[in-house]
Amino acid sequence: MKKIKILGAGISGLTAAINLAKAGYKVDVYEKNKDTGMRFHGDMQGLENRKGIDVLEEFKQMNIKINFECYPVNNIILTNGVKTSEINTERARYYLVKRGSFDGTVDYDLKKQALEAGIEIHYNKTVPENEVDIVAIGPNFKQITGVAKGIVFNTDLEDMLVLAYGDDLAFKGYSYFIVRNGYACMCSTVIGELDRVNECFENTKEFFEKKYDLNVTSPKIVGGVGSIALNNTYMNGNRMYVGEAAGLQDIVAGFGMRFAIKSGYLAAQSIINDEDYKAVAEKTFENILKAGIVNRYLYEKLFLKNSYSLFIDLLPLCSRHNFSAEKFNILQRMIYPFALSYIKKKYSEI
Ligand SMILES: Cc1cc2nc3c(=O)[nH]c(=O)nc-3n(C[C@H](O)[C@H](O)[C@H](O)COP(=O)(O)OP(=O)(O)OC[C@H]3O[C@@H](n4cnc5c(N)ncnc54)[C@H](O)[C@@H]3O)c2cc1C
Questions:
Q1: pTM across the whole model
Q2: pLDDT one-digit tens code per residue, 11-66
Q3: Is the CB of 148 under 6 A from ligand 1?
Q4: pLDDT tens figures, 285-337
Q5: Measuring CA to CA, which of 63, 66, 95, 121 is 20 to 30 A from 304?
Q6: What gap in Å lies between CA 184 and CA 43, rounded to an integer?
Q7: Does the C-beta of 264 come closer than 6 Å to ligand 1?
Q8: Average pLDDT of the residues in 109-113
């Protein structure tokens, strides 16, 4: 039986492991923490559901069962305090999922699926990168570009997803307030100037408390840092890199789960079918990552100046007219060289 070693029992590493085990490989996963999902503490995150195949259907095709808590989002409220707009869609725009080390989270559900597939997960154990086949260790701490701080708590408010914009609330990022089935997650995300996060979170909390007449009791702190790379590392020697370890994170909104699971799947398929993982990964992710660079450039150049009012007007319009900003269309291709040069100057760490 062929043996494979994976570093990191997060969502990308476990997806790779599940697919390899199902194809008959003996898989050992090494995880530095005592359990899966310890990076998060009940955070609610949005699984982006871009045009094309539904993300949950895609996961099923990648041998991932959907047993974790998962709530479709068809209505999003956008606001900067002055202006408010709404996006309503028939197709779910996101699915909300929970992250952490407990039942119902994506992390824990993948762990269960991995154990059922016969994978051995060695907790509290790490090995050098050059001893493994797949590196799936999450953020690269030399390339931290974004940070989020937030809280989760119970509430009797009705379900909602509100995105709030403004550099006092979320410097170059966005704040979010999510409620699903009496469980709320409120966060502020900050890009670049990471030390602003405490102040931004306090402003965010005050903003939502006032807006929804909130009484927050027994909140639990959530959040953390995220890394982004302009040059993705898919291979180093014979090792494959997946998820955030490969720099796979959207530079506009910080989405990384779909990338993580897809890259884990592609790495496994490359081993099973003896394919060139780097070539497959580049082909799969290149355009969407480039479109993200252009979108981040436009976000900072066009929308920041008017406190994101134009953005709040434009987003529902794009949604109604089925305009996809992730396609890397002809206009985005023309803007790309300027966007890349701007991002390189602004965010030298990536
Ligand atoms: C606050 C926050 C909010 C986010 N919101 C969203 C969102 O709404 N939507 C979205 O799509 N994405 C979101 N993301 C990004 C998303 O969480 C990540 O992109 C995704 O979890 C990356 O998966 P991964 O498998 O690469 O890494 P992880 O899920 O971090 O897993 C990596 C694993 O490797 C382990 N590990 C690390 N180093 C070692 C080592 N040396 N040896 C052994 N094990 C090691 C870790 O302990 C961890 O278990 C958010 C991120 C943050 C921080």
A1: 0.96
A2: 999 999 999 999 999 999 999 999 999 999 999 999 999 888 999 999 999 999 99
A3: yes
A4: 999 999 999 999 999 998 887 789 999 999 998 888 777 777 899 999 999 99
A5: 95
A6: 9
A7: no
A8: 98
pLDDT digits (tens, 9 = 90+) for 51-76: 889 999 999 999 999 999 999 999 99
- Distance of alpha carbon 109 from alpha carbon 68, whole angstroms: 6
Q: How far is the CA of 141 from the centre of ligand 1 (A)?
A: 12
- Mind listing the pLDDT tens digit for each residue in 242-282? 999 999 999 988 999 999 999 999 999 999 999 999 999 99
CA of 85 to the centre of ligand 1 (A): 31
Pocket flag, ligand 1, residue 173 (CB < 6 Å): no
Largest interatomic CA distance in the chain: 62
Domain boundaries along the sequence of the chain: 3-141+228-286, 144-226, 287-346
Average pLDDT, the chain: 95
- Per CATH, which fold does 3-141+228-286 belong to? FAD/NAD(P)-binding domain (3.50.50)
- Is the CB of 249 within 6 Å of ligand 1? yes
Q: Extract the tokens encoding 243.
A: 């998820």
Which ligand 1 atom is at minimum distance from the Cα of 146?
53
- Of ligand 1's atoms, which has the minimum distance to the CA of residue 127? 42
Report the DSSP beta bridge partners of residue 146: 191, 226
Task: Find the 349 Cα to ligand 1 centroid distance in Å.
Answer: 19
Q: Is the CB of 257 under 6 A from ligand 1?
A: yes
**Residue of the nearest CA to atom 49 in ligand 1?**
10
H or E element in which residue 147 lies: strand 144-154
Tell me, using a 6 A CB cutoff, whether residue 73 lines ligand 1: no
Residue 91 in contact with residue 82, Cβ under 8 Å? no
DSSP 159: P
Atom of ligand 1 nearest to the CA of 129: 41
CA 342 remoteness from chain centre: 23
